Q: What sequence folds into this?
């Protein structure tokens, strides 16, 4: 917490990511003024060009580590930050770009870039917590804007954020959704996925895609057994887990085991 | 003069009059078809009822199916129960504001109109009685539940058929609603001389009935209603084993079956959310960026989460085994000690809506059978 009378200095940093999580903050239109009143936005290139040197009371970090330069930069940011919170699947798990961890990154580069020799990159995409100490991880691809504000509010009050680690199913039922797996036979990752989105996909008759990564006690074997009964084949199971949180255990193991 | 205990016969069309009459004073809730399921929601008239639909239920399986008649209540129980409205999933508790004059508290808004439920099954009526016991009749009455429960008007429906996951007969909770209703309907002969037998259970139920086109029930109507309920009783898809369940569970807290069921259990919490008697909640601080405001909101909680048993130093029930055992032994055994009855009314929701079809009657059976060696 900041001393009375001064607003805590907030910095928002970007690593390998799509910017979607930072944009969630700008998307908080109704609350943005309250945020700006509660913290001093010292570094946030998406929103303002003004830069204030550290140290920062709170750093929000989006994105994963994919270059040697970024691996060094995150260490400097950690040193300049009293508290460091990672936001989104890239920062907490390596993101969709962590698919490179299971292939040869040079193959991707040669397909994507006209001049592969200009590209300098690491062979892996990894979570921020694999490089520096992280005080809190906020899940999601992208993060939920209400949860992002909750994390900020909790930081300001010095309390634990209410971002429960239970299944999406709990939110799904609180919302009054009809379970798509039971009532429609639609494969759903909700039972093994961390809550936070408010069970959006089941509310629109889609199975959960697992955007928030593994829940607190995921029983992968039990769900996979049932998915197979619903007629989901092995490669499809591998693809279900091989998305934004492919580098988060146990999604990683399942995606690999089923031939991802 | 229509009095309590009388029985009448109405035609299906008269239900529209019933709904409209209730709508004058109540928010009327009842079965509708939504997202391929029977979902309790606001009713505006007869046309909202699931005419000609039924449901097929098994472990982890629910499908809406067409009937070949025009039955209005030809399904059993759906994904949610009346708990959705009486003990709401998300309940604001209070808001507070700080000013120069001190702190002022604002209570949450109370429901504008009392609730009327159409289509309350025997198991569901019993579940409401259990939640009354827990939330109103203990040392502390829950004001939010009380406010919604107090005036609630109940139109019960006796089941004329049972579902694949029903086991009310073995729990002694159905399929006939014995008491605690304003009106109780039994749907008769939906493929032929379609009509409903209406029993009057309260004075206000009688007043409402008097305003509907009706005739007194004959002995033949009463026989047909009894036959319908008997048919449902004979169709139970499941049964709770006829053993002293609390004693069997209490003797088997270390039974290997708990570990076996934990291999299948997702610890997802669906069973507790759909159970019409589960009442546990957690309280969250409202999100407030402004320093002069605060609030609290209560949400349904589940004994399947780690937070549920979190105390200083960590969660007490780490394993799926201990969490499943907590749910089952509370529901079926220690509930008796705490509240004087079983916590299960045999509605079968936890079986159908468990994404992997775990069946509590099967678990009890496995443990009980192992004792008989
Ligand atoms: S739809 Fe998915 S998230 Fe919702 S209860 Fe069913 S399995 Fe869980
Ligand atoms: S334990 Fe299952 S069958 Fe019993 S009342 Fe709860 S949901 Fe219904
Ligand atoms: S018994 Fe079924 S519904 Fe209940 S927590 Fe386990 S998997 Fe989920």
A:
């Amino acid at each position: 917490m900041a001393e009375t009378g001064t607003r805590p200095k907030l910095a928002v940093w970007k690593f390998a990511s799509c910017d979607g999580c930072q944009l969630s903050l700008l998307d908080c239109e109704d609350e943005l003024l309250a945020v700006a009143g509660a913290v001093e936005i010292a570094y946030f290139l998406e929103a303002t060009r003004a830069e204030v040197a550290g140290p920062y009371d709170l750093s929000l970090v989006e994105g994963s580590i994919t270059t040697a330069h970024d691996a060094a930069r995150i260490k400097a940011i950690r040193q300049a930050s009293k508290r460091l919170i990672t936001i989104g699947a890239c920062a907490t798990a390596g993101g969709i770009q962590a698919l490179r961890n299971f292939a040869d990154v040079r193959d991707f580069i040669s397909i994507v870039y006209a001049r592969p020799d200009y590209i300098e990159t690491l062979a892996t995409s990894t979570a921020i917590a694999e490089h520096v100490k992280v005080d809190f991880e906020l899940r999601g691809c992208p993060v939920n804007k209400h949860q992002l504000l909750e994390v900020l509010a909790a930081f300001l009050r010095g309390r634990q954020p209410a971002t429960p680690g239970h299944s999406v199913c709990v939110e799904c039922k609180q919302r009054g959704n009809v379970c798509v797996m039971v009532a429609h036979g639609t494969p759903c990752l909700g039972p093994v996925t961390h809550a936070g989105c408010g069970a959006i996909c089941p509310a629109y008759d889609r199975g959960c895609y697992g955007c928030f990564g593994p829940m607190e006690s995921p029983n992968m074997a039990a769900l996979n057994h049932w998915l197979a009964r619903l007629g989901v084949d092995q490669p499809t199971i591998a693809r279900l887990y091989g998305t934004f949180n492919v580098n988060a255990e146990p999604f990683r193991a399942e995606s690999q085991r089923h031939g991802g | 003069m229509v009095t309590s205990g009388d029985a009448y016969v109405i035609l299906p069309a008269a239900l529209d009059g019933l709904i409209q009459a209730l709508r004058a004073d109540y928010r009327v809730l009842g079965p509708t078809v939504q997202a391929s399921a029977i979902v309790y929601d606001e009713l505006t008239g007869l046309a909202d009822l699931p005419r000609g639909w039924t449901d097929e239920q098994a472990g982890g399986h629910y499908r809406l199916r067409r009937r070949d008649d025009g039955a209005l209540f030809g399904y059993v129980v759906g994904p949610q129960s009346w708990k959705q409205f009486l003990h709401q999933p998300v309940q604001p508790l209070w808001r507070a504001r700080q000013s120069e004059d001190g702190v002022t508290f604002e209570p949450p808004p109370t429901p504008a109109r009392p609730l009327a439920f159409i289509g309350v099954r025997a198991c569901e009526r019993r579940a409401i009685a259990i939640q009354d016991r827990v939330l109103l009749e203990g040392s502390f009455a829950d004001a939010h539940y009380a406010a919604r429960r107090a005036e609630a008007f109940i139109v019960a429906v006796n089941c004329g058929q049972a579902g694949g996951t029903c086991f009310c007969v073995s729990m002694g909770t159905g399929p006939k609603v014995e008491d605690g209703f304003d009106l109780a309907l039994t749907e008769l002969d939906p493929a032929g001389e379609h009509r409903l037998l209406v029993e009057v259970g309260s004075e206000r139920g009688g007043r409402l009935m008097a305003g509907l086109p009706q005739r007194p029930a004959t002995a033949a109507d009463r026989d047909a209603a009894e036959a319908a309920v008997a048919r449902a009783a004979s169709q139970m898809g499941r049964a709770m084993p006829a053993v002293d369940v609390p004693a069997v569970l209490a003797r088997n807290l270390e039974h290997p079956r708990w570990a076996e069921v934990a291999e299948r259990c997702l610890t997802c919490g669906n069973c507790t959310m759909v159970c019409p008697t589960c009442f546990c909640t957690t309280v969250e601080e409202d999100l407030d960026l402004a320093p002069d405001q605060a609030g609290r909101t209560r949400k349904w909680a589940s004994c399947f989460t780690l937070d549920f048993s979190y105390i200083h130093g960590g969660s007490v029930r780490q394993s799926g085994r201990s969490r499943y055992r907590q749910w089952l032994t509370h529901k079926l055994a220690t509930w008796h000690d705490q509240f004087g009855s079983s916590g299960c009314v045999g509605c079968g929701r936890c079986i159908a809506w468990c994404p992997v079809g775990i069946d509590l009657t099967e678990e009890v059976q496995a443990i009980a059978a192992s004792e008989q060696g």
